[in-house]
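USER:
Make up one protein:

ASSISTANT:
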Amino acid sequence: MRIALAGAGAFGEKHLDGLKLIDGVTVTSLVGRNLEPTQAIAAKYGIDHATTDLAETLARDDVDAVILCTPTQMHAAQAIQCMDAGKHVEVEIPLADSLADAEAVLAKAQATGLTCMVGHTRRFNPSHQYIHGLIAKGELNLQQMDVQTYFFRRRNINAKGEARSWTDHLLWHHAAHTVDLFAYQAGPIVAANALAGPLHPELGIAMDMSIQLKSESGAICTLSLSFNNDGPLGTFFRYIGDTGTWLARYDDLFTGKDVPVDVSKVDVSVNGIELQDREFIAAIREGREPNSSVAQVLPCYRVLDALEKQLATSGERSFA
């Protein structure tokens, strides 16, 4: 399997670290915004071809599939571009920043029959897989999820502290993780509400947001998001069920009393990004629909669209 990766930033390197652990996979091309740093990362990972032009990479005959780690606003158009070139594609979360664009990607995937997967990593983190297994076996009925997604991003920088060429936002990116995960764990979402805090004077985005969800099973979810949080960073999940409480912190899991839970046997790795990429590769090889396919995650983007409209009509705004 010959893979091209577009977006040689902080998250792109996480994928490169995971891909090198998957048997039979070679990264043959790397696409970045600026050539010199892209060439440096290509050299670091032993990738022979580096470019700033995605079309150049798509024209190569040594590329079977593409992983897109590019800015959010480019995801939908680039995913369609990849499928038009006959390449399978994995799009990092979020699939798009509008429902119309997300639906256009789904339509292209259905028309081409190519594998199109979205990087909803929470489905693959061993911590969340463990909880999903309990639910699937009937050993846990989820009552509530309490989720905190906290960052300190008062300037437009990425996870490596470098200046970004695009503006991130809480609703269409960071909320997408939890909206999809909640539906994955508790069933389809039947009610959703949101409130947004003041807009940043320069970035033009809401820096704080609160979202409430309810699934058809009756379970509820409370999601708090902030770019203003000067403290522990990341996303922290509390699962409250009828048989126990669990705390999930990325790939790690703890009981409600903060006792570690061994998730090392849940999957072949304890790295959610690597497991996500393994699913993408396996689905292509086996000719099947992947977990987190564009069709499976589209309901998440319908919820985000409804929340954006709700914020607009209530005088709130999700982003400029």
